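Justification of computing resources. Each target in the renewal requires a structure prediction run like the one illustrated here; the chain below, 326 residues long, is used simply to show the kind of job we budget for.
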Amino acid sequence: MSRTTQILVGVLVILLITWALVSTDRHHVKEKEHFLSNDTSQIDFVHIRNKDGEVTLKRVGGNWRVTEPYNYPANSSYTQTLLKKVAELELESLITRNKDKYEDYEVEGEESAYVEIGREGGDIDKFYCGKPSKTYTHTYLRREDTDEVWLVSGTPRSSFTRKPKDWRDKTILRLDKTMIERILLKFPDETVELLRTVASPADDTTLVAPDTSWQVIPERGKPFPPADRVMNRIRNTMGNMNSMDFKLAGIDTIPRFDPPEFTAEVFLEGDQHEVLDFVPDPDSDSRWAVRKNGNEETIFVVYKSTAKNLMKRPDDLKEKEEDKES
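Resulting structure tokens:
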């Protein structure tokens, strides 16, 4: 390479560096500062507006609730993730004050998420959350009352772009399986009862500890013990059931539950009693809709397999030869 060429290349490199420096208002902070003005342990109010709508969450005591557009317990995993992510936000560098570039960083427009977070009646941080950096370790944010776009360490965008209904607690049932004492599996043409019996040493002196067993009581025929594999699946499903989606009255089309295609009733010690009605989801062949305790304000949506785990006729509950062999 000739000396002239080397000089020209050097000049070009200097010009490119200079252009990069002056093309934005980038300013690196000497010492990182927290983006939020509030300690996250004190936060009790969150409002988010994105392209899918608006949602407001409030903390009462130690529990978070969705208060708008409906009143319902919030998904605790999502709220914990949000608080963890915003606690990690630290100012990295000032990117630009040029309003023409707002949409480039998605701190304005449809792709932007507007957030209010802080203490109700106290300090509230208000800002627009933009797109992540190319390395997905930082995010572009702009406070509502300034024209400055900042690159901030942290990645909170996934929390701010959730659909409002996704913030609801997805729990349908969370039961102590050891407390379940009776289950009714109701079909339009028959009801199958599953009854727990507990034998104690007082009943049988050969026992040294209480022994729990289950009996299937069909409408026709004699009672019999259920296959362990099938019974365990029923108890596990009833003990821990989550929704994968929701249908909301006034927003979504609520399927008809009169009559339900299947109903599962569970009775626990201490007079706790839960009723779940199931019908196929008219919007999907792979999902079923669930009504809990007759409440149609919120309809849960579960996978078809969840319903099928419970929809057992007497023949389905009998131990098969393959179960004996295994």
